[in-house]
């Protein structure tokens, strides 16, 4: 068996190895999901979970004995038979022999078979070592790459705005929101005063419900306006998943200034 033949055999066996591993993997568990994020970002989640991970690991460990060794053994027999047929075709058929000649041929054939078995045993040994090394190196490369994959999620700057910009906008929004609450409260004070004046002089003052809308621009209901409520907070949840404070819109458990509502 030449070196080229050995290389072809190993390559073919490796292809079979990969195919065998794929058969044991539930490809549907390799999922990539995307969703829209803030400021036009696309958020991507990858999952490599295998429901049958234990079974796949067992298949990897047992593949050499169950697939590779029988495959190489079968291939060895094919190569051996083909080599004998090729020799016969090239050099001609063997002549008929008597007992002594037959014994001689049996000894030659036994030695030939022994030598061929040793050649292919080296192939099996080298191939097994190569496969074990490849599995180990694959896992090592995955471990190293996994650390980098984690870093991609932790250190990537997915925000196109500087933090100071976000903080300044939060200060402005909070200031406007506070003014809305204050002005609404003042409006209600004036409304209560107007109501008192009307009650004191019902014959001289028109209540004017038709054109006097409420502080938020809504129509009155039976000439009354609802008490001011806190304006809605941003729809985004706090970093820990809790709801924002309805008064300050802050996140009490958030470590940032913005989240705590310190404006």
Annotation, overall tally of beta strands? 2
Structural class: mainly alpha
Oligomer: single chain
Strands of the widest sheet, in order across it, are 1-2
Biggest sheet overview = 2 strands, antiparallel
Query: How large is the count of helical segments?
Result: 4
Spans of 5+ residues with little confidence (pLDDT < 50)?
Answer: 6-15, 17-28, 257-263
- Give the overall silhouette: rod-shaped
Strand fraction equals under 5%
Order of helices and strands: HEEHHH
- Give the tally of structural domains: 3
Average residue-wise pLDDT: 78
Radius of gyration: 41 Å
What is the CA–CA distance across the termini?
81 Å
Give the helix level as a range of percent: 55-70%
What attributes characterize this protein structure?
5% strand, rod-shaped, 2 strands, 263 residues, mainly alpha, 3 domains
Written description of the protein model:
By secondary structure, the chain is mostly helical. The chain folds into three domains: about 5-155, no CATH class; about 160-230, no CATH class; about 240-263, no CATH class. About 60% of the residues lie in helices and about 5% in strands. The chain has four helices and two strands, in the order H-E-E-H-H-H. It has a two-stranded antiparallel sheet. The longest helix is centred in the middle third of the chain and has 57 residues, at about 100-155. It is rod-shaped and about 145 Å long. The two termini are about 80 Å apart.
